[in-house]
């Protein structure tokens, strides 16, 4: 039996006005409807209704993780420095890490993601190939000192993530664990009612080979992706910037990392582009002497090209680079246009496999010289990708590509043996010899998913939750007299008795108009109004999403909802 949540006793204060700093619908509406409250930059309090929605998302994620045999654990968020030093990420993460010291001066961090600690946990617990495969997951608070925490819970500095890790002894085993996660994620987002696409993704700081993202198309998203309307080809436009060391079919020597403190800084770029220095740049694709290449911007700062683009007329942008970078103090040309990522090429099809070029190295102040297509880039995943202009041909089937903005809601990686190598994670194999373990890591932004849902489902009047995540099934509004409140209350109890989750607006001294406005804002899927018709046993049922309303006898309304 569900219980009735009474608004008269719920800590819930809706706001008429948008928060001043809110740029996105989810930010505005989640604050105005009383779901979340900002505590400090990128740090949020989940109020009673918000906590219910978050818990619903978590329940779905947990069910689907359990269904693929995931075992839930809870590792600490407060982590010792050493494992992250061993993996190199204490350095690599740069300013993104929250670092702190204990009273004795020992250094710690607040976990941004947990590959290191999970690897050590399995090393501690599993000794034989018989102990594997294993999938472990947790739902936990993560910490990242994001450069631009904004858009409410879409990008927090403290946020909730489901992260899981698979441990296998064979490559086939890893492929299967990855496949299981991919399918589980599709089911999760399906059940949550999130429109989503699976796209090829950058491996970034994680290293490793195969990686895909789950993107929720939304104008407020910070990712840009290409999508083919005629086949299943889709890729994040970030995908090109991954530099993945792999085999060397070209016969070139190893690529060389360059210290390039003289490459364009945020400030020099900003000067060139005529935008404020507070704009930041991530990976800008440029042309070096006729050849397309990429420029990483020093530091872990990211550029929102969308924002940058707003300030610019379509134009070729010229950047002066250090001699070290290009091998000649030439002009480097790049393209930035008005509609966000107007950089023309993710990769240029004219750059044939085997061509050496210069690229960002996914490390602050570093670029790589003699990067070889097909060796250092996964040609299939990245370099065959062509364009960022709508209508440009899909590399898979030739149809006109579409370009969209989206929110990254999930990310799956085949890490391979990277962390197992770093920490010496072996188990005893069937022949009694040690076998190196291979890993995958998989994340869902559960708090971000709440915001993504709000972005995709809201309308002009407020939030419109899909039933699976809504804070209640039915919002019963007692519109008017005390008698109606009594009837509404009795009805609410009956529905709850039948297992329906009910939010009851039984507030005294609040006008029906305000109650209706709040019900629309809060966004429970069905609104049941106990109003003028009540003395005759008639109530109104309203579908929040479609706006469809009908008057029904009480018994019929109950039968329909219960
Ligand atoms: P983004 O590109 O948005 O910064 P990410 O690629 O850094 O995300 P991952 O390391 O892949 O994130 O983490 C797994 C998931 O955690 C992401 O797919 C996203 O849904 C979520 N996530 C990451 N950063 C944040 C954040 N700052 N606030 C809320 N959710 C986040
Ligand atoms: Mg990030
Ligand atoms: Mg990302
Ligand atoms: Mg990611």
From TrEMBL:
Compartment(s) where it occurs, according to its Swiss-Prot or TrEMBL record: Cytoplasm
Gene designation per UniProt: proS
Protein's UniProt keywords contain Cytoplasm: yes
Single Gene Ontology MF annotation: ATP binding
Record GO cellular component, one term: cytosol
Name of the top EC class for this enzyme: ligase
Catalytic activity from the UniProt record: tRNA(Pro) + L-proline + ATP = L-prolyl-tRNA(Pro) + AMP + diphosphate
Gene3D superfamilies reported for this sequence: Anticodon-binding domain, Bira Bifunctional Protein, Domain 2, YbaK/aminoacyl-tRNA synthetase-associated domain
EC number: 6.1.1.15
Record's keyword terms, sorted: Aminoacyl-tRNA synthetase, ATP-binding, Cytoplasm, Ligase, Nucleotide-binding, Protein biosynthesis
Family per similarity comment: Belongs to the class-II aminoacyl-tRNA synthetase family. ProS type 1 subfamily.
Name of the protein this chain belongs to: Proline--tRNA ligase
InterPro entries associated with the record: aa-tRNA-synt_IIb, aa-tRNA-synth_II, aa-tRNA-synth_II/BPL/LPL, Anticodon-bd, Anticodon-bd_dom_sf, Pro-tRNA-ligase_IIa, Pro-tRNA-synth_IIa_bac-type, Pro-tRNA-Synthase_IIa_type1
Coiled-coil spans in chain: none
Pfam family of the protein (one): tRNA_edit
